[in-house]
Write a structure and sequence with these properties.
There is one protein chain. By secondary structure, the chain is an alpha/beta fold. The chain has 2 domains: 215 residues, 3-Layer(aba) Sandwich (Rossmann fold), CATH 3.40.50.150; 95 residues, rRNA adenine dimethylase, C-terminal domain (Helicase, Ruva Protein, domain 3), CATH 1.10.8. The protein contains 13 helices and 9 strands. α8 crosses α11. The chain is elongated and about 70 Å long. The protein starts with 13 loop residues before the first helix and ends with a helix. 39% of the residues are buried. Bound molecules: S-adenosylmethionine. S-adenosylmethionine binds next to β1, α3 and β3.
């Protein structure tokens, strides 16, 4: 007979926990809490089936999402929280879910989840995703750099992706969620859209109004689900891809040749940009937002060849040149 599904026993509400442990949100840490457990259940359902999974929750705070994850039949939940004030409240949850909740007082930017879960969870990259999930509602100032770091990890199959194609369900400012999932040609299309979509299947699965949080943030919140692709749509090093995309989008309203030109030193800029666009078969008068992931694939492949032929090209960064010119002008007085 199957073991009965685990449910947390009756506990004080999140509002009561906040009062009990004096967990006023710290504005400077951009803390906004979810109190409605129906809403946290809904977020957690968007992560997919968590039965018998190992879940890594980033930034649990007073534990609303944490409770919903514990009630979803997980095998183990590991939470990493930076603010020590939340640890006693989380400890109370751990006591209510014996053997299920591991609490780490630490920083998600440096925590090594690849060492925390059993080796036996590892799957081949080409297999179905492993029974490992990442879930979190972090401050927006943390979630964007963190997703860039994790995209880099996906490209190298390390960090949380040592286990295979670990799925992630994360919150962002609604506008960032829209950028992450924007299709070619749409108004929100940006650097983040291409970075995320060349490595992952990305879905904006839920929008939560700001009023659902305490205190209420200025903006609404989007929940985004990421599943790493078996085959990245661009097969070049992350740093190279990031550089091409960043340059392409730096003059958003101009034709794409303007930004892409900045990949090359000024002396051969015109010639090299022409060569790049011609060999990649990309129309120079498309705007950056009109470039598809396949356009970027061709651009990155050709740029890679040009860098292999002349390594100075990859080392070149036009912002350094700008800085040098500025200081030369200052010296001249
Ligand atoms: N997840 C909770 C919720 O939905 O109610 C709290 C959300 S609050 C926006 C973000 C939480 O992330 C806070 O508890 C904060 O202390 C924590 N946090 C912020 N930066 C962090 C970091 N670098 N590492 C770990 N936790 C962090």
């Amino acid at each position: 007979m199957a073991a009965p599904a685990f449910r947390l026993p009756p506990l004080p509400t999140i509002r009561e926990i906040i009062k009990l442990f004096r967990l006023q949100a710290m504005k400077q840490l951009s803390q906004n809490f979810l109190l409605d457990l129906r809403l946290t259940d809904k977020i957690v359902r968007k992560a997919g089936d968590l039965t018998n999974s190992h879940v890594y929750e980033v930034g649990p705070g007073p534990g609303g999402i944490t409770r919903s994850i514990l009630n979803a039949g997980v095998s183990e939940l590991l939470v990493v929280e930076k603010d020590i004030r939340f640890i006693p409240g989380l400890q109370m949850l751990s006591d209510a879910a014996p053997g299920k909740l591991r609490i780490v007082h630490g920083d998600v930017m440096t925590f090594k989840i690849e060492k925390a879960f059993p080796e036996s969870l590892k799957r081949q990259w080409e297999d179905d995703p492993p029974a490992v999930h990442i879930i979190g509602n972090l401050p927006f100032s943390v979630s964007t750099p963190l997703i860039i770091k994790w995209l880099d990890n996906i490209s190298q199959r390390d960090g949380p992706f040592t286990y295979g194609r670990t799925q992630m369900t994360l919150t962002f400012q609604k506008e960032v969620a829209e950028r992450l999932t924007a299709s070619t040609g749409s108004k929100q299309r940006s650097r983040l859209s291409v970075m995320a979509q060349y490595l992952c299947h990305v879905q904006h699965v839920l929008t939560i109004p700001g009023r659902a949080f305490l205190p209420k943030p200025e903006v609404d919140v989007g929940v985004v689900h990421f599943t790493p692709l078996v085959q990245p749509r661009i097969q070049q090093p992350f740093r190279l891809v990031e550089k091409v995309i960043r340059n392409a989008f730096q003059f958003r309203r101009k034709y794409c040749h303007r930004g892409l030109g900045m990949l090359f030193p000024e002396a051969q800029r015109l010639e090299n940009t022409g060569k790049l666009l011609e060999l990649a078969e990309v129309n120079p008068t498309l705007r950056p937002g009109q470039l598809s992931v396949s356009h970027f694939k061709s651009l990155c492949d050709v740029y890679r060849k040009m860098c292999d032929e002349d390594p100075h090209i990859f080392a070149y960064n036009f912002r350094d040149e700008l800085k040098q010119n500025k200081s030369k002008n200052q010296e001249r007085g």
